[in-house]
Every structure is written in C-alpha cells, then in structure tokens.
Amino acid sequence: MGSLETERSVVGWAAKDPSGVLSPYTYTLRNTGAEDVYIKVICCGICHTDLHQIKNELGMSNYPMVPGHEVVGEVVEVGSDVTNFKVGDVVGVGVLVGCCRNCRPCESDIEQYCNKKIWSYNDVYTDGKPTQGGFAEAMVVDQKFLVKLPDGMSPEQAAPLLCAGVTVYSPLSHFGLKKSGLRGGILGLGGVGHMGVKIAKAMGHHVTVISSSDKKRVEAVEHLGADEYLVSSDATRMQEAADSLDYIIDTVPVGHPLEPYLSLLKLDGKLILMGVINTPLQFVTPMLMLGRKIITGSFIGSMKETKEMLEFCEEKGLASMIEVIKMDYINTAFERLKKNDVRYRFVVDVAGSKLDQ
Hints:
Keywords: Metal-binding, Oxidoreductase, Zinc
Distance between the termini: 33 Å
Subunit structure: Homodimer.
InterPro entries: ADH-like_C, ADH-like_N, ADH_Zn_CS, CAD-like, ER, GroES-like_sf, NAD(P)-bd_dom_sf
Strand content: 25-35%
Helix content: 10-25%
Protein name: Enoyl reductase (ER) domain-containing protein
Order of helices and strands: EEEHEEEHEEEEEHHEHEHEHEHEHEHEHE
Family: Belongs to the zinc-containing alcohol dehydrogenase family.
Number of domains: 2
CATH topology of the largest domain: Quinone Oxidoreductase, Chain A, domain 1
Shape: globular
C-alpha cells in the first residue's frame, strides 16, 4: 500500500508531569512515509525504565509523555517501500525507532549505540514530532525498527522479550558467553533478571540467583530453574561462593555496592551492569586488579540480536512470567512496580482496554 496522506488522531495514556500519573491523552501520529509501518497496538510491557521516565528521575523527561517500549502490534498498513512486513503481521517494537544509519555503530548493526538514536518515546523524530510509546492505540514505525514475531508466539509473552529479553541476550552473545558449561550469576530477580535466568539456563549455564533476601528462593529455584540461590547479606555463603562465577548480570536499578559481587567472579570474570542508575557506583580497584576482572555495561540489543533472541526463545520454549492488566490499572501497576511487587512483568492488554476513560 502507498503512504497515508493524513495524520491519524489516537488516544494514549500519558504522564503530564513528574507525578508520573497517567491519564488519557489524544495526539496525532506523523504521516506514514514510504518506509513506515502503521500498527495497531495489541499489548505493551511495563519496564522499570518507564517508571524512571514518567517521574523524571533521570532529569530528561518531556511532557505529555506516552511511555511503553515493549510493544506488540498488528500491521494495519505499510508504506510503498516496505518489503519486510505485510498487513496482518504481528510485530514488535522495542526501545528505539530511529538512528543515523551511517555512523560506525549503525554500519556494524549495533544501532543501539548510535549517538543519534531516537527513543520510542520522550524523544523527537526526524520530522520534529515528539515520539510517543506503546500505551496507545497505534504507532507509526520505520520498518528497520520492527521485528516479526515467530509464528505461534503469544503477543503478551513476547512483549517483555523486546526489552528485558534482548537486554540479557545481547551481552551474553557479545562477550562470548553463549557456550554451555559456564557458571553465571543473576543479581536481582525482576523483569530482566527472571529472563536472565531462563535464557542462561537454556544456554546450558549453571545459574546462581543473587538477592538481598531469602523471599524469592522458591520462585528462583523451583519455578525458574536456578541451580543455586545466594543471599548477599549471608557473609558465610558469600565467602564460600568467592571466585566461582564466570559472569554476573547485574539488573539492580538502584544504587548498590559492587565489591560483594566482584568477589564472586573468577579470574577474568565480568560484572555486566544492566540497571539504569542515576547515582555513582563505587568500588576499590584491587577488587578488579587482583583478578583481572571487568566491570562493563550493555544497552538493550540491536534489531539483529532482537530477531536472534526471539528465534532462540521460540526454539527453547522460553516465555516471560507476566501479569496481564488493563490500562485502567496502569497507575496501580507502576506503584506496585516501584515496590517490586510483580512476578515478573506487567503487560498491558492495550487492545482490550477502553483508552478514552
């Protein structure tokens, strides 16, 4: 189909100020260009980053803001130059909707590191219109930033994979940690952490969940399949586990000391930071030097890695553990997320919600 000639008016749920309270908001989508795909949103996951953004905790929020970057939708119309998608396809949209396409990261298929990347929401598109996210009726997205869901994969189960899933998959792939037989740690058992356990186990790793309390032990071991559970305040067990892990995926989204976890790493072990934290983290250098250990970070994943991850999850039968809600519950869901009261990802049934109420 050709490009649409008129802008569409849609309803989403937006934060209007740093209180972070979402309410109905009507706005227009940009015109659909030749490379664009117009999608009707089916569902959208709630990520901890959404909480940071709606409350301006990173100091960069623009209002009104429609959050949501774990979006699954159905293709309604495609631009004249769209070749990868057709009407009726079920597709996913993640954290990004644009990049410059000619810098080193873009040319290397790691466009998430492009300095001119465009976020799915709280950003400005190339035409000057603000980007708005997936807690809305519809989106217009460049075909480069869409991925087709594998046949048979549930939209609600797939939504968290578009951020939480690929955020874990990308560093495991990039740092050569996909091979079986490794010993890995997952620090923090939330939305990202629970997918970390599932993906690492599917890769054949011995997985230890590290948490600040004992309350998630049964969930981690019996439901998610972790091999061990380590409480970070248990000094004896932490000492026994010293120098035992090849890597730790640190998903904690608030400030925390790094030394206790660095001590768990083997020689050349990697502490991979995932949590968005707006305060400095501290450590003493001998913790790194005496084991040639690495503190590094990783940001979501590329579109190429997103496709690989979805295929991997489909092949291994992996799915997110979710709680499906309607849009009228979203403010309560954000309050619960702030208290870590979710197992392990909220997913909003957007298509089944009355957005204008």
